[in-house]
Amino acid sequence: MSGNREWDFVHSTCYLYIAFACETDGVFTDE
Fold it and tell me: How far apart are the C-alpha atoms of 2 and 26, rounded to whole Å?
């Protein structure tokens, strides 16, 4: 199983995508 690099890429991409989606969705704007 040599897919560490792939998983790293997927995780960082998913994290960035989720963070961006949440920001645009207004989840973090709860002031």
Answer: 38
